[in-house]
Amino acid sequence: MPRCSERDGMAKQGVKRRSQRQIEDVNGSGKPADLDVLQSLVTEMLLALGEKPGRNGLLKTPERVAKALAFMTQGYQRDIDQLLNGALFPIEYDEMVIVKDIGFFSMCEHHLLPFFGKVHVGYLPNKKVVGLSKIPRIVDMFARRLQVQERLTVQIAETLKTRDRGGSVPQRPST
């Protein structure tokens, strides 16, 4: 395993490469989480914290944490076109479409801690409307990634805009 300063350097290189991509990347990598790697990392983390991963209460913890992380970040495997599945309908409608109180759950990319709340999505149709059930699915797709609230808002709005609509996404974090 690389020394701490080497790991810091590798992490900085990873950040540098990622920052060159667009922040509003709609589709994820499509690559499923590697549960074996995640389990190993959780075991290392427990050891680094001074715990004994082999003790009774922690035996299955690396497996459980790996599965939980894979579930909470499954948005990386979703494809927006498959999610929408053609649910764009031509219609002459010039009033705002609003879906309120869409619950979301995400993980802060800075601390790997959960944050959650409600999102309200509104858009003015531009000769097309999206099936209303798809809007909460769009929210969930982007929320199920390591996230910050500001990017979550932009990704939802940009997805609606690029599908020939304008979008607005106010959020209300839970307290």
Describe this structure in words.
- With 175 residues, the protein is α+β, with helices and mostly antiparallel strands.
- The chain folds into two domains: 4-75, Orthogonal Bundle (GTP Cyclohydrolase I, Chain A, domain 1), CATH 1.10.286.10; 79-173, GTP cyclohydrolase I, C-terminal domain/NADPH-dependent 7-cyano-7-deazaguanine reductase, N-terminal domain (GTP Cyclohydrolase I, domain 2), CATH 3.30.1130.
- The protein has six helices and six strands, in the order ααααββββαβαβ.
- It has helices spanning 4-19, 35-48, 61-72, 80-84, 134-143, 149-162, and strands spanning 88-90, 97-108, 114-123, 128-130, 146-147, 171-173.
- Strands 5-2-3-6 form a four-stranded mixed beta sheet.
- Helix 5 crosses helix 6 (149-162).
- It is elongated, with a radius of gyration of 19 Å.
- The protein starts with a helix and ends with a strand.
- Residues 10-24 have low confidence and may be disordered.
Summarize the structure.
The chain has 175 residues and is α+β, with helices and mostly antiparallel strands. It is built from six helices and six strands; from the N terminus they run H-H-H-H-E-E-E-E-H-E-H-E.
Write the layout of secondary structure elements.
Layout: H1 4-19, H2 35-48, H3 61-72, H4 80-84, E1 88-90, E2 97-108, E3 114-123, E4 128-130, H5 134-143, E5 146-147, H6 149-162, E6 171-173
Parallel strand pairs: 2-5
Antiparallel strand pairs: 1-4, 2-3, 3-6
Helix pairs in contact: 2-3, 5-6
